[in-house]
Automatic annotation (TrEMBL):
It comes from Psylliodes chrysocephalus. It catalyses: N-terminal L-alanyl-L-prolyl-L-lysyl-[protein] + 3 S-adenosyl-L-methionine = N-terminal N,N,N-trimethyl-L-alanyl-L-prolyl-L-lysyl-[protein] + 3 S-adenosyl-L-homocysteine + 3 H(+); N-terminal L-prolyl-L-prolyl-L-lysyl-[protein] + 2 S-adenosyl-L-methionine = N-terminal N,N-dimethyl-L-prolyl-L-prolyl-L-lysyl-[protein] + 2 S-adenosyl-L-homocysteine + 2 H(+); N-terminal L-seryl-L-prolyl-L-lysyl-[protein] + 3 S-adenosyl-L-methionine = N-terminal N,N,N-trimethyl-L-seryl-L-prolyl-L-lysyl-[protein] + 3 S-adenosyl-L-homocysteine + 3 H(+). This is Alpha N-terminal protein methyltransferase 1. Keywords: Methyltransferase, S-adenosyl-L-methionine, Transferase. The lineage of its organism: Eukaryota, Metazoa, Ecdysozoa, Arthropoda, Hexapoda. Belongs to the methyltransferase superfamily. NTM1 family. SUPFAM superfamilies: S-adenosyl-L-methionine-dependent methyltransferases. GO terms for cellular component: cytoplasm.
Amino acid sequence: MSLENVDNNEEKFYTNAVNYWSEIPATIDGMLGGFGFISQTDIKGSKMLLNQLFNSKDPPEKHYALDCGAGIGRISKFLLTETFEKVDMVEQNEDFLQQAKQYLGPKVDKIGNFYPEGLQNFQPETGKYDVIWIQWVLGHLTNADLIQFLISCGKGLKKNGVIVIKENVTSSDEIEKDEQDSSITRPLRHYHTIFQKAKLECYRQLKQQNFPKGLFPVYMFILRPSGDILNEMSHENNLVKLENVHDNCKKDNVICETIIQHDSDLKDKNATSSDIVEFKNSTNNDENKINIESLLKFDDSMKTSLDNQ
Ligand SMILES: C[S@@+](CC[C@H](N)C(=O)[O-])C[C@H]1O[C@@H](n2cnc3c(N)ncnc32)[C@H](O)[C@@H]1O
């Protein structure tokens, strides 16, 4: 299944998803396709990511968050209203939003707006949000709409604001289509291409741990509009962040150490950007190549500084 196929049958792709969700009970199990029991583990992983974010340099404020594809408000209830003063919810199924008003209990007071809209038609208010949280919904957007939506999310951020995406990814390098709920699951590589096209910089990427075997791998990405991050982060910072991000994954730690070691080697011998690209290409694991690419940021400023050494 190619992305072009999805993009060319856009109307059917969206109406089939609306029809699918209209038959789904407004419960946690309904939201998580019968895997309601993973909700706590999911929230725990997300809290860890938010903690890392708030302990980083120039963190966002904790004033306003947006929950995208919010369903009945599972994430708003257990994660976002715990951290932020106010939360808006955008969700295309109005019944889920109605149910959210009950399900959230007293936390409903923290909800600013309920937006009953598809993300493909929604534009966040400019400069409003500290964090825009998007989870388990992007497979319902076509490539073109996803890029447009992410661009408008970038505009919806306050200073130091971030977009957090938490999504299934395929283990293969291929897109997988689910005809039943009319969604696609993208490989990691596609997400990174999409982020680039939306002019977003992925400065942290973390794999959710402790989910049952047999599910798609789930990744969390923290994204900022590209210009901000290039100005504020040095290459050394990126290496430290790389270590921190992967502190719970032995394999990645080894890779991280290797990069750091190679990095000083590369610097010692007055390496140019092409030496680094060659090093990246010499790793033999696709996923790690992507980690290296996104976390070491082979961006223009770094290339320039290395080439000028
Ligand atoms: C798998 S559930 C996840 C709900 C919530 N994010 C969570 O993790 O509990 C997917 C949600 O996305 C909503 N959805 C599907 N397509 C959408 C679209 N194009 N725009 C907005 N919401 C959509 C569904 O109605 C459903 O509530």
